[in-house]
Design brief:
Helix content: 40-55%
Radius of gyration: 18 Å
Number of strands: 4
Number of helices: 6
Distance between the termini: 39 Å
């Protein structure tokens, strides 16, 4: 097989993967719309603030994008996190799921059920993410990746992958 045939097959695979992503994510968005509406009402009734939040993540080829999620925390969660880290240097980032006081009552249910991640289907439709792929990393974590860990930035990050199907709380 010459390089032209290889390039053509690679392009066809990318195209088919994109079609798969758009069809699956679009269909899933339509099917989960009632769940999203109920979740949105619950968030609004539980706490003041926006329904969704945007998190900056590192995408394909190191390009940053805004990943969407339903809001699960109180409005001023980011300043609270820096205060928590200052008090407890052993926290190494986020507090344990059950002890995070920033998470609302509805937010705990949304996180437990992963409903908070449904808006990421819109990221897939937009082309920032794929249905299947490695989780997008935080910009602060991207700086610390080893050369062999850098392979993940060559592909679109995904909503689901090995981390999601394994025991998330025990994954490194």
């Amino acid at each position: 097989m010459n390089s032209v045939e290889s390039s053509s097959r690679s392009g066809t695979r990318r195209f088919l993967k994109r079609v798969f992503d758009v069809v699956v994510a679009g269909t899933a968005l339509l099917l989960t719309l009632p769940v999203l509406l109920v979740a949105a009402m619950a968030i609004k009734l539980d706490s003041p603030g926006l329904l969704m939040c945007r998190h900056i993540r590192v995408g394909k080829d190191g390009v940053h994008f805004e990943m969407l999620r339903l809001r699960c925390t109180v409005v001023d969660a980011e300043p609270t996190l820096s205060e928590l880290e200052a008090v407890d240097e052993r926290s190494e980032g986020l507090p344990a799921e059950g002890s995070d006081l920033r998470v609302t009552r509805v937010g705990r249910i949304l996180r437990w059920s992963s409903i908070d991640e449904l808006p990421q289907l819109w990221n897939v439709v937009r082309g920032n993410m794929s249905v299947i792929g490695p989780r997008p990393v935080l910009p602060s974590d991207d700086e610390n990746l080893t050369p062999d860990m850098r392979n993940h930035v060559g592909v679109l990050p995904g909503i689901t992958g090995l981390w999601e199907i394994s025991d998330r709380s025990k994954a490194s």
